[in-house]
Design a protein that fits this description.
Elements: H1 12-17, H2 23-30, H3 32-38, H4 55-61, H5 88-95, H6 110-123, E1 127-131, H7 134-145, E2 151-155, H8 160-169, E3 176-180, H9 185-193, E4 198-202, H10 214-223, E5 227-231, E6 249-253, E7 267-271, H11 273-286, H12 292-302, H13 305-324, E8 329-333, H14 343-349, E9 356-361, H15 364-371, E10 379-380, E11 390-392, H16 404-409, E12 416-420, H17 426-438
Parallel strand pairs: 2-3, 2-4, 4-5, 5-6, 10-11
Antiparallel strand pairs: 1-7, 6-7, 8-9, 9-12, 11-12
Helix pairs in contact: 3-6, 4-6, 6-12, 7-11, 9-10, 13-17
Bound molecules: pyridoxal-5'-phosphate.
Residues 133-135, 159, 161, 202, 206, 231, 233-234, 253, 255, 265, 267 line the site of pyridoxal-5'-phosphate.
Length: 440
């Protein structure tokens, strides 16, 4: 038996056996294509093969044409905990994976499936699943794939929440996590060669915008048969495609650029079908399901992903150039600057340098505290990737979960400002920064 029953209704032995059941049976429980093909009232639009489209068109059309009910042009928000089957045989077939369909909202939902499919098409993965937040996507991935005795290699500069999984939570399950200097590719390769079950990468990093050499590191990971997972939140699939570079899985905080409007939390995991299957099975029971309303908001936001990301990257570049030349600014981290230590690597694996930068101003944390209140066109908030420019220091944003000592150990200065460029007019952003720096 396979399907969607809550664990309490699933015979224990059968549940244990699920991992070894056939892909065919499982796939129908989460493969959006299979689900939609079987739904009544389904209309297919002329966009039958999204792989032929430019990504900008996929952001608009991808995954949607399969589920436009009753001539609606927009995907519906399906608020239904369960999906009813008056016919027992049909119910049984869906529940056992013989026929496509939905059974229970913790497992799959039509709106969520459309969101997942759009991300899958953009990242170019075999399979996809989602979760309630980016951290749910990341922690479910790690818990689903790792076992006591396994060894993870990662870098010191992963997102603060991810970093805490490595330093606190996973070790308590008997999993060794070694965090290596992010910029020392040779040291990461050495650590991987000493034995590694999962190599976890994030690039560009949050908040110091370091860039990892994906090609070299993915090759190192695969050299020891490690699973390679890449957090692609900062770059987005419009700027970087880790799966095309060989990674096994991509994870996202969809809360950030994918949604883009700072109004919905979500996470997504895309990549090798056998791995996504494990993550889906764990998340299904862990229960960190993406809500249909959040999925709808993320889906709607994704329609403008390409134009947002393009505009934001242009703004970020102009802001980085402006800040680099400003006498009160002591350091600017942006992969698009020629002065960035890994600029060449970024240029070789990214099609755009993204919208995130960070900078330090003369006077450290006290100066930052004086500077931030003067900004008029920026939310001072623990978020990024939104249409509005958003700023904050690591102590209240990316590394809020860490103590000052932990941030220091991770090499993250307290006096840094993380800047997520919005889609405002660039002249307004530059003028705003100029007056705020003058006021310090
Ligand atoms: N990964 C990165 C790179 C992030 O910046 C964040 C959050 O800022 C996360 C993961 C976690 O995402 P969420 O807040 O959706 O759980």
């Amino acid at each position: 038996m396979c399907g969607f029953y809550p664990a309490a209704r699933c015979p224990a032995q059968e549940w244990k056996n699920r991992a070894s059941e056939s892909n065919e049976c499982f796939d129908q429980t989460w493969n959006a294509g299979a689900i939609f093909a079987a739904l009544p009232s389904v209309r297919r639009s002329p966009v039958s093969d999204p792989s032929e489209l430019d990504p900008a068109s996929v952001t608009v059309w991808g995954g949607e044409e399969r589920y436009l009910l009753d001539r609606a042009t927009q995907v519906p928000v399906v608020h239904s905990v369960a999906f009813g089957y008056p016919d027992f045989d049909e119910w049984y077939d869906v529940a056992t994976g013989v026929a496509a369909g939905h059974i229970y909202g913790r497992n799959t939902n039509p709106t969520v499936a459309v969101f997942e499919e759009k991300v899958r098409l953009l990242e170019g993965g075999e399979a996809v699943t989602s979760a309630s937040t980016g951290m749910a996507a990341i922690s479910n991935t790690l818990h689903a794939l790792l076992r006591p005795g396994d060894r993870v290699v990662s870098v010191k500069d992963t997102y603060g929440g991810t970093s805490l999984l490595f330093t606190e939570f996973l070790p308590s399950f008997g999993i060794t996590c070694d965090l290596i200097d992010t910029t020392d590719t040779a040291a990461i390769e050495t650590a991987v060669s000493q034995g590694c079950d999962l190599l976890y990468l994030e690039t560009p990093t949050n908040p110091t915008l370091k860039v990892l050499d994906l090609r070299r590191l993915i090759a190192a990971g695969h050299g020891v048969k490690a699973t390679v997972v890449v957090d692609n939140t900062f770059a987005t699939p419009m700027n970087q495609l880790p799966l095309a570079l060989g990674a096994d899985l991509v994870v996202h905080s969809a809360t950030k650029f994918l949604g883009g409007h700072a109004d919905a939390l979500g996470g997504v995991v895309v990549g090798r079908a056998d791995l996504v299957k494990k993550v889906y099975q764990y998340r299904e029971i862990n229960g960190a399901t993406l809500d249909p309303m959040a999925a709808y908001l993320l889906l709607r936001g994704m329609k403008t992903l390409q134009i947002r990301v393009e505009r934001q990257a242009e703004n970020a570049m102009a802001v980085a150039v402006f800040l680099e030349a400003h006498p009160k600014v002591t350091r600017v981290n942006y992969p698009g600057l020629a002065s960035h230590p890994q600029h060449e690597i970024a240029a070789s694996q990214m099609t755009g340098f993204g919208s995130m930068l960070s900078f330090a101003i003369e006077g450290g944390l006290d100066a930052v505290k004086g500077f931030l209140p003067h900004l008029k066109l920026a939310h001072r908030a623990a978020n990024l990737g939104a249409v509005e420019t958003t700023v904050g220091p690591p102590a209240t944003t990316s590394h809020v979960e860490c103590t000052p000592q932990e941030r220091e150990a991770l090499g993250i200065p307290e006096g840094l400002v993380r800047y997520s460029a919005g889609i405002e007019h660039v002249d307004d952003l530059l003028a705003d920064l100029a007056q705020a720096l003058d006021a310090v």
